[in-house]
Amino acid sequence: MIKQALISTAAIGVLAACGEAVTADTAGSQENAQLTAQADSSGPQVGDRIPEPAANPEDSNRLAAAGAEANDAAARGYSEIGWEELMPEGEEERLAQLYQQQMAMLYSGGPIMEGSAADVMVQIGTFNTVSELNERKIRIPGYTVPFEFGANAEISEFLLVPYFGACLHAPPPPPNQTVFAISEDPIRLRDLAQAVWIEGTMYTQTQESELADAAYTLRVEKVEPYQY
Question: Which one of 27, 142, 210, 223 is separated from 201 by 20 to 30 angstroms, measured CA to CA?
Fold first, then answer.
């Protein structure tokens, strides 16, 4: 069973409030045509995390297929992991404290003017990583955030994040909940709302970018849709 990201409900609320406190118009100013699926109530909404596979009897075949895929990946040497496994012990508590400090700073200075130096989506968190994941072959689900689109919507570098709209319409996840993904063979990407499974080799190597900083780097070897 796929595990959810280990950001507490309270921390998620603070994260959303943080984005709202920066400016009510920030999301509108960063509209991305690739996120049109957001308007469709049947698709993921900004902030939605990778869902758990449905457990009702009608989806038994889908669950069986997902289990078979996980077993196949394991047979090829890839360990299936959840986003919470990217965070070292005690990181959730540290993250909650950082959110509280950021909220106190935001509200202590009064309203933030749109377009000002403070009118930005802040990435909160640390670069603390789990050393055991270095050079480990893993399989993880997530949403893709490309830096730019090449010909035929093909990308070779992108961010992998645990919730939809991160870095574009919502504040970035913490660095240790953000993965910088690199693929030698360009990947054709047509729908940012489609969650994917990524297989590859993980490294505890930091990467900085204009969208967000990442505490992990993943050498991509396989990409496939995440069905739920």
Answer: 210
